[in-house]
Amino acid sequence: MKALLKHRETQLVAVILAMVGLIALRFPSFVAPASLGNVFNDTSILIILALGQMTVILTKCVDLSTAATLALSGMVAAMLNNLYPDLPVLLLVVVAILTGVLAGAINGLLVWRLDIPPIVVTLGTMTIYRGIIFLISDGKWINAHEMTDAFKAVPRADFLGIPVLSWMALSVTAIMAVLLRRLATGRAFYAVGGNPHAAVYTGIDVGYTRFLSFVLSGALSGLAGYLWIARYAVAYVDIALGFELDVVAACVIGGISIAGGIGTVFGAVLGSLFLGTIKNALPVINISPFWQLAISGSVIILAVAFNARAERRKGRVILKKAEVVA
Amino acid sequence: MSSQEMQARFIKDRLQGRGERLLRSWEALLLAVAVIIFAINVWSSPYFLDPWNLSDATFNFTEKGLIAFALALVIISGEIDLSVAAILALSSTLMGLAMSHGAGTPELVAIGLLTGLACGAVNGFLVSGLGLPSIVVTIGTMSLFRGIAFIILGDKAFTGYPSDFAWFGQGYVFWVISFELVLFVLTAVVFAVLLHATSFGRTVYAIGNNPMAARFSGVRVERVKFILFLLTGLMSGLAAVCLTSRLGSTRPSIATGWELEAVTMVVLGGINILGGSGRIGGVVLAALIMGMVTFGFGLLNVPGIVMSIFVGLLLILVIAVPKLVTRIRQVRRKG
Amino acid sequence: NVAHAENKKIALVVKALGIGFFDAANKGAQEAAKELGDVDIIYTGPTDTTAEGQIEVINSLVAQKVDAIAISANDKDALVPALKKAMERGIKVISWDSGVAPEGRMMHLNPSSNPLIGNMCVKMAADNLPEGGDVAILSAAATATNQNTWIEEMKKVLPNYKGINIVATVYGDDKTDKSYTEAQGLMKAYPNLKAIIAPTSVGIVAAAQAVTDAGMVGKINVTGLGLPSEMAGHVKSGASKSFAIWNPIDLGYAATMISYNLVTGKEEAKPGAELSMGRMGKVKLDDNSEGAMADPFVYDAKNVEEFAKIF
Amino acid sequence: MIRLAGIAKTFPGVRALGGVELSLFPGSVTALVGENGAGKSTLVKILTGIYQPDEGHIELDGRPVRFATTMDAARAGVTAIHQETVLFDELSVAENIFLGHQPRTRFGFIDWKRMNAEARALLERIGARLEPDMRLRDLGIANRHLVAIARALSIDARVVIMDEPTAALSHKEIGELYELVERLKAEGKAILFISHKFDEIFRIADRYTVFRDGEMVGAGLLAETTQSELVRLMVGRDVGQVFPKVPAAIGEPVLTVAGYCHPTEFEDIGFELRRGEILGFYGLIGAGRSEVMQALFGVTRPSRGAVRIDGQVAVIRTPAEAVARGIVYVPEDRGRQGAIIGMPIVSNVTLPSLYRTSRHGFIRMAEEFALARDYTARLDLRAAALDQDVGTLSGGNQQKVVIAKWLATRPKVIILDEPTKGIDIGSKAAVHAFMSELAGQGLSVIMVSSEIPEIMGMADRVVVMREGRMAGTFARDGLTPEILVRAAAGIGEEA
Ligand SMILES: Nc1ncnc2c1ncn2[C@@H]1O[C@H](COP(=O)(O)OP(=O)(O)OP(=O)(O)O)[C@@H](O)[C@H]1O
Ligand SMILES: Nc1ncnc2c1ncn2[C@@H]1O[C@H](COP(=O)(O)OP(=O)(O)OP(=O)(O)O)[C@@H](O)[C@H]1O
Ligand SMILES: [Mg+2]
Ligand SMILES: [Mg+2]
Predict the structure, then answer these.
(1) What architecture is domain D253-489?
(2) What topology does the record note for this protein and the membrane (chain A) (predicted)?
(3) Which of B7, B231, C147, D326 lies deepest, with the highest CB count within 10 Å?
(4) Which residues of B touch D384 (CB under 8 A)?
């Protein structure tokens, strides 16, 4: 029990529950199951992106191009749908994911083969990918009526009473949990971020592992790109502009250490839910829209300070008597 | 153990001469790029080589450059500040607030600078006082500072700044030389001296290379970092004075996205994003390059996003190409 | 290039490239250019809706020595210094759609009169609510000039519509996802909501989508200002009973015509003047040198399909 | 069993190995000796597939093999305990042991259950009392090393390489390691043992190979050689006295420490340091000596106690304050706390004394170089130029830069924490000679060391620490290794 209390994740669950409870006091309708389901559904895309970003951060890198990759993949899918309405939606989803994979692979290759710091690479590709959207779409929007109904229907389709969008987030979470816990590649992400130098000695190719994490992040951004565009039924250059910072913030709130090697799937999901709940709740509890930005900023800072305290090294204890107390 | 090490007791001061070092430096590469871009601009638009037009073009980079100089020091010390644009917005908002209560030009400038300092102090406290990672702290304060601006201003705007206040962003010191350009050059010199010729600058490099060893060498790491965040806040406040004066009005969304442009400028300028190396001269050249690219493309009416593709590519290529070249050389030597 | 050198260069500067409404305005400008013969249109703007971006664009247009700038502003005040400088260098500057403060331009062409638009928005909501009810506004950026003016006008005419309450104003920043989330928030916070008024083409589409997704079609009516091509689907589904817009093609056309007449010196923009706009007739300027083009036009299930093909 | 033929390896600018020959035999321990930077660790990395040789080849049972990855080497039965710690703080003990070759289920997933069970068995085998699910970051340095050993043994190997395995172990664990080596030998494994400690080489090894500047300069049976013969092969010349302590005039007290306490690390420390004195601090690894020194230097904050410098009470809260009062500290962890690798020699040397080479905060280049030149020359630094990055120097020379940096501040007290750890015998003699010289000039020296010969040879007095407390202070006269070991291990106290 005590061990449970100490876990960052457990604390985060408690904070989220407390927050939801407080909102419920003023707005009971917010905690109706349907309403909470909606909050989760709204957060699904953030969860998917955060899980991708998490693998990158685990390897001591950062991917600032996720939102741009999302927009690019979504635009590619939407344009194809517009030009060839007969193509099956599943194929378009695959195309979106592959676009993401390609974008991620470019990031990964630059980091792996040319040893350019990830923040520089993704800062560069972030603008490049958005620029490419402008070039391929000629800056035009693709609007709801230019997409087929089947294309738009997928995320909101109902399966066992839950929208497919939520199912997507749930299954990506499950897959990532298995990947990071039960596959050698997953453990390699932790090893590479925890101690890149030592990873070399255990036969892990540090660069290649980072490459893989970027590809994975790209693939998830690609999937999220399709989901985003189908859900909001519009595609244009500035889709999800600045969203990459939300994704990084969600990871950090969820206890993924920016220094690499520390973090869990559960944490990333909770971090996203936390951010999602706040963004969802603020308009509901009638907080002036002008306060929202400052509130989410403060919350991020608090979360970072909180996590840093939890993470602070206990230090080695030499004195015997101190050891008993500690 | 190389044979060099085994030789004489006498150790010479420098491995390479000054000239050779300059020639091989990042700045030389940037200068070449700048000259090429200048030439392309001259060739592609008849309007480029006009003193007034060139003068107008400098506004594309002067304010961002002011921020980039201070940011460069922060990045060399191994930290980062993503809240610079938000600080600018908050400074501008508080200046507007003061103006609406009847403050005159000197007070406005003071308030702009002080707000910047205060925001820098908040960042500095969180990063060096509490030891939190600067990249996430400043993502947080970025929302916080701009959020406060939104709280104050909401959907309103401050307009009607005193007419003499306009001089900072719209005034000319001599012929086509604007006040902002003079300020840019002066600040560049001050920061170059601070970084390259003072003991403070030296400790900044030491911290960026190895904060632990710097601390063990008697460097007051926390204090230096705090000062750097203060400086960045101050420069953001200064940029706020210029931009507010140039726009003649304030809205909370002012300077959105500038943090990434400033970081891009710094990195393009050859400052190692991981800390420890880089020079102010590079940042000056990077500012010029980015300004010329924006203006040159603007004259051809190329949309802004295409310019950013170009800057993004430049950012990656300028770092990638030298690495590729050495790699190819190595392979050739072996093969 | 010699032949072109004598052509008048008129720059049509928009809030951001890629927005359907402005692309349509560009069509109108091109039409005017063809009619006039000796005009080159430079259609440009930043890629995101910021004042700083527009200033850079203005600076490069000044450097190119264009003859006129016709701008739809992202910020009423911030553009003033840059546009003033343009005027000092002999460039004719007018604003259209979203205005610039009087010091920064020679005249402003309102697509329609602001009181009319405000009234129309409330009327469209009220027409479908004989018993009255709660209504919310979904705006664009909190800084958008025209949005704020229209919202003020809406509030002014409210007493004329019995039973209609405006319960909230939220801002979607002309971003789809933000507008969508805000619309969802409105539905959650106000269970009795009967209509959402979104006087922005991005917001209205997102709100209609949100209403559809929440299964509230028929319960909540989305109305406001939108483009027929973007709204056709939502009118069909019933999420939106009706919406209004002026014709952006006409707007672009008129702005170009006015600019041309100012450049050639045939006409002068001053309070009380009457400026001609080609096939659109004439516009009379008020004390602020502002003029309104036409009434907003209402689209509903009957006519939307037809116009969707045009813009 | 395994044979290396003509192996050569060049790093940019450095030829680490050139045409090396080496053979290992089953059931036999081969000691590999050589100065710092002779290429020993590089050879280990080639043998385990981390580096690829530029020339030459490896033969296993007479057949040439190629180790493209560490996995190839492991499959061929070669395993190593590396010199650097190659462990992961955030992972469990079991994962640290099996990372890279985890047991898998039929579907390719990691079999955590089996992994933990196998880890438990391995840990038992080497006598480590650790749970497989403990997180590594909660372990002390010695236990970490045991995990590293368990990791090496988790590969069913025929060739076991140990690169300075005893450098971080204490007395007791070293004994256990020797037993393990004997057991492996009895199992018929071929063992390569790298060490700078000659007593231990002669104790457990059968054969030797000597490297100098990346070349093999000698090999044979240990029974047929002597220590001085090995040293001559290593260094290429005779090395004089290793501990050239010259008696120095001992003056008045410079540093007095009384009732010094820290909440978790040490308690009730008190001693006096006099002018010209070398005060040794001995103890088993982890006794808390470094902690005391770092508190004196202002890195950590003590909870109670008084420090006096020249009779004046001194409160030291930061290293900067310590330096200002004339106390300087040469840390144990050279790479992380000592040298600033990415900066030139000159900047490293002048960093703490910048105020002396600058006016009003502006640095004067000429004075700066003069200062650096002066102190590096005194320490006989070997480098090509003063603006060369410190990272390009060998370990011993890096240590000299750190010492030069502190001498340039003209301190009263210099604290040397394990000054010769991992330093070869030639450089060691130089450091010792220099220490002696400093004391002779009236500087007070505190020397923390875990090597008995060094302590006995150099110190005027010795403080022994055990588990964060003082276990006794001993004068040089009549001191025997026996006394030190008993005090450090607490033998005789309980009995
Ligand atoms: N990755 C590398 N890049 C460049 N030079 C290297 C690298 N690794 C080793 N060297 C150089 O190769 C030489 C041999 O180093 P090595 O680590 O093998 O020495 P060693 O014999 O193990 O020394 P020690 O006794 O200090 O452990 C040294 O000069 C070292 O600086
Ligand atoms: N659990 C640990 N985690 C991280 N670093 C450790 C740990 N244990 C030891 N160290 C580091 O390893 C080095 C050697 O530690 P050591 O065991 O020598 O302790 P110490 O306090 O230096 O005691 P002494 O100097 O008496 O040996 C020190 O730099 C110490 O900080
Ligand atoms: Mg070695
Ligand atoms: Mg120690």
Answers:
(1) 3-Layer(aba) Sandwich (3.40)
(2) Multi-pass membrane protein
(3) C147
(4) 2, 4-5, 11-12, 15
